[in-house]
Amino acid sequence: MSYFRHIDNGEGSTKLFVGGVHGNEGKTAFKFLDKLKEEDFSKGQIFIYNFDKSPYISTLDEKYFESPMGKTILELIEDIKPDFYTELHCYNIKNFEKLTSMDRFNTIGVPPLIDMGNHVLMGSISPIIRTKYFSVNNICKTLEFPCLDKLNDDVVAKYNFDMDLSFNTYFNILKTLAMEPNRKSYENKMVELYPKQVDLAIDFAKKIFGEFFPPY
Length: 216
Prior knowledge:
seven-stranded mixed sheet, globular
């Protein structure tokens, strides 16, 4: 579902939230973006985009950023120059083990997504654009929720999926990105709420981006 919103909260960090990056993920992302209220955001300029269905090309593939959707994302990043950049994705819950497996280092050269609990996954954005379009001071995150259009009673039962718990976990992480005013406060909040996951993020960032690159 196509959706755009700009919130002018005065002076502060610039934040860009993007759903519908590829495929039909915008259908799931909209459920979260539409729920965010003005008071959920820090001071600063907030830009929220959710896109309609587009061909699915992985953001780990350079061809994605040559596609119309990929070029649109890059144009937004270059025009807005966000301090916080968040992509809202969804995934087929059947691929949970694959996405969180350390084998991803060997098979596609990127770390696994981090299990935040209740089938919510988190990671960095594509390394193709992380260092090219952002500085080390920027917060760049990917959030993954099970795709709503791939859930049915049999899948929910098989994977012990709890919609309410998963929704709340995802939305609370999203609100942390929306509410925290700067890198330092965001880092402190994540260490407070998810210390084990932060340790993993630090380790993965060193493997991909180098010893002194931050895990966010």
